Amino acid sequence: MKLNPLVLCNYSATWLAAFAAKRREEKMPSPSFTLNPQMRYHDKWLKIDLQRAFSSEGLSEMWNEMVKDEEITFNGEESMNPEDFTDCFGTQKKEEPNDKERKEDEDPPSSVHQSIIESWDWGRQPDETELKDCLMVLVEDQQKLSGQLAKSTLSAQRLRQRLVILERYLISLSHSMREETYKFCWKMPSSPPRPAADNKGPRPASKSVEGLARVGSRAALSFAFAFLRRAWRSGDDADLCTELLQESLDALRALPEATLFDETTVSPVWLEVVERATKFLSDVHGNGSTKGNIPLQDQHLVLAILLELAIQRGTLSQLLYVVLLLLRLWENGTREMDNERSTQGTSAPLLSFLQRFQNIHSSKEVVVSEEDSEILTAPLSPNESFLRYLTLPQDNDLAIDLRQTAVVIMAHLDRLASPCSPPNCNSPSHKGSLQEVIAWGFWAGNFMPIGAVYTQNYKSTTLAPMLIHSLSSKKIIKLAAHPDGQHFLALSSNGEVYSWGCGDGGRLGHGDATYVEEPTVIAAFSGKQTGKQVIEIACGSTYSAAITADGELYTWGRGNYGRLGHGSSEDVTTPMLVTALKGQKVVDVSCGSGDAQTLAVTENGQVWSWGDGDYGKLGRGGSDGCKTPKLVEKLQDLDILKVCCGSQFSVALTKDGQVYTWGKGDNQRLGHGTDEHVRYPKLLDCLQGKKVVDIAVGSTHCLALTDEGEVHSWGSNDKLQHFDTLFPNKKQPKALPGLNSKHIVGISCGPGQSFAWSSCSEWSVGQRVPFVVDVCPMTFEQLDLLLRQVSEGMDGSSDWPPPQEKECMVVATLNLLRLQLHAAISNQMAPEELGLGLGSTLLNNLKQTVVMLASNAGVLNTVQSAAQAVLQSGWSVLLPNCRGKSQSTIFTASQRCLMADGGLESALDAAITAEIQDIEAKKEAQKEKEIDEQEANASTILRCRTTLDKDLINTGIYESSGKQSLPLVQLVQQLLRNIASQTIARLKDVARRISNYLEAEHVSKERSASLDLLLRFQRLLVSKLYLGVTDTETVNGYNPELLGVGSLLKKYIALLCAHIGDILPVATSIASAGRRHFAEVSRVIEGDLTGVLLPELVLSIALLLTIDAGLMQETGSIPLLAGLLEHLDRFNHLAPGHEMDEN
């Protein structure tokens, strides 16, 4: 059994030396293939498992996939030879076959030295100079021969293929990094400007009225409070007290929830009244000496008023306050009972409040019917399960347990917070990429998983899309509809076309005009015998179109105005070939509405139009229509990529990202700033300087998506299709605010709606959201108090399992804490402003509790997952550094923290910035000396056989200028140490098991979260170097950022090599005992630092070396890797059959 990754590492160093040298000489033969990365496959490459390239099966599959996707193109040859891989990264130039023959004729492999030696057979004897020259020629011939033999080996072929695959992956990763922009908080469009009269300052009379109101309210409150105190103390006028409190409670219940949430719309007088009333009522339950004089009914009314005030204020901090109050009252009542069973002090008639809270719904919450709950929802959380089976009593006067009331409130808060919370990357329902769909206009809805089709009518009363069950077993890859249409098309992965909806005019293609309720396959495109593999579909308002793989265009449906292109105005009820375009390969088609026009794009970038010609929408200068396709000459040389038909107008997108519009100009739908009709295609000047990658058209409005993720809109705004303006029309294209931070990758339009969706969810939330988000010190203090109280006994040391009440409370509190931390980080709030500064008691308490719940054994899975999610979202606040007694625990609990929400990218940027500062500080006279010392230290470390504590290394490459290391570097260092320690322990366990004749331990093939994080970090680091060397021209040295990345890479390689240098000697020692030992040790190492990180790192360094050897020499990474060759060689020599590999 041979450990392929280690063999690759061992082989690479030797091959790289010759490879890099030949590149520098620029004498390399041109390849017979070219790497042509296609932008449309970038997302696919970001999702692949690059580690598959290190197995022969995975390598073949990935290479063949690239060939199939035409990302590897061959220059006139059916197959490729090993020599063809030599320079796939540099400039590629096709080499003619006769050039190869000429080269072979001119320079036979060994003709030079043979002719020299033959000349000495019968001539004079050569002198010493001639012998030396001949020897040099012989050596050069041997080098050429050795190079040709080396390139022809299977390992060399596979290594070159892996280099191509790695570069393709880095191209996609670099592309995604280029698209990243600075994040900023989503802000709703500002309110329209008020009339001039409203903008004037308040009149002096209004100030006087406000002053009088404040005086009156204070006097009234003071009198009311004094009256209540006196009455409760003396026992007189008890009925009046109860009546006053009951009327106040009834008045509050009559108001809608969160009336006082937006304090800018509430009079300061009322805010003061609420504040004073809350304080007085809180004192009633907080002062134990006076509480005994207050009738129980009044106590219950005071508590109910406090709860109603909290729900009126709508802030999370106030709701948490009343939850803590309920728990405190329950505990006090329990103590007072002296073990006697009584509900007098632990219950109150609060059912009306709970019913009211139950009816509150989040603006983002989607209510799903029971029928679709299994399809549209993830596994139930503890609080979802609790609320699902919760049944409230019908009697409003029934006393409810105060602790149970607190549990129900927290469960509802968790329910309301869930739609606003960022997705948990550990959740099974959020594996892979996440997408956020944003909709605005007359209607907005939700969209569900890829491959399933959901539908929702614009006027539907349902709150969630309904699954189309007849297509649930099909993998649907494309859908087509029209803003003004009433029918739909769906294209499956096997090329079948389904249609349903209104069938008037034969638009469904089934041969009749009947309405079809369920998707039905169109027989003309069904079955392999038809030979019509459909790849594109389109809908007009009353007709349809489809394009086959051969580029043939088929149309069917209403034929008036010649919109079908068949030369007549007759309706066609089954798909019919547009013969006028036979010989042209159609790649895109768009169908219009009303007096419809049809546009088609051919492979050569030409646009053809036919149908109704009103307002010049056919783009040929007049208003004449035509019944067969005709060329739009004005677009002939512009290389059109896509076309769209709107209501009486047309839009075209060129390959270089320019947009042309023409046709009817009403409502500024053309984007030229006027209502004038345009009868020829006209360039949109407002989008000059932008590269548009997609366009979408509604009835009278348009959207355009740029390569930077901006969404520009223009046209009619009668249904708020553009949320950045309240004017009836938007004259010219302008970017919609807030969307460029969402990583938008797609757009679409309805008749009065606009849609955009992201490639991965950039979850955003404001600083204040009713009931669930209130980012302020008081909220974090309340969450800390509540979490410590309800998590008591949840650390796994007490009886198990804990009660459901405690589980629900802890999970809800953790979820609310996570949401507050996410909101604070998203809005770039300083931790010090929230009382969470470094070293603060509040921060230490929260960190200690969360880490305990996230890492202790015996903690419920639901609680542990919620705590780990808190660390994942809020690590930058909770774990500003990783020093202290709980360092090991923190690292274990937070191993996935950097993997979510761009955390790793941000931390990497900060680490690179620190490296740049260190490099600038070392540009003095001691720079060369320090670098030499660093390399010497690293070399010593790699060759050291004794156990070494990596945390004690504080000089050279491990810390700079005496500064405290960055959290990211510390985390990487700790993760490497933990994994290395675990691997060494597993290797020793292998030896013990074999010696005791025990069965081998099962080794999971899944990578740990720690390895995933390190692999992600390593790839990001390499991609930044790749992006720098491919985008930046070297002028007078390398730019500081590139050197900073190189310095960080060197630190990482030194740390990795040091730990691998500890693992391999142990592995070699155990593996040398026998073949079974070697096989078991190999299985362990294949899933470890040596088998996962090292091969990909060596391959990445190889690729970077072939692109810019000078930069890699500048970083000093190669000598560090070379220090491992001796260990790798020693281990590989233990493999059975290694002699065959060497020969």
Features of the shown structure:
Methylamine Dehydrogenase, Chain H; globular; alpha+beta; RCC1/BLIP-II; 33 helices; disordered N terminus; single chain; 31 strands; Reg_chr_condens; 1143 residues; 5 domains; four-stranded antiparallel sheet; E3 ubiquitin-protein ligase HERC2
Question: What is the general shape?
Answer: globular
Count of discrete alpha- or pi-helical segments spanning 4 or more residues: 33
Helix content: 40-55%
Count of strand segments: 31
Query: What would you report as the Rg, rounded to the nearest angstrom?
Result: 36 Å
Q: Biggest sheet: strands side by side, in what order?
A: 8-9-10-11
Largest sheet: 4 strands, antiparallel
Q: Structurally, how many domains make up the residues?
A: 5
Determine the mean pLDDT: 77
What is the first-to-last residue Cα distance?
Answer: 17 Å
- The chain-level structural class is alpha+beta
* CATH fold assignment of the largest domain: Methylamine Dehydrogenase, Chain H
Protein name: E3 ubiquitin-protein ligase HERC2
Keywords: Repeat
Pfam family, one: WD40_RLD
Organism: Oryzias melastigma
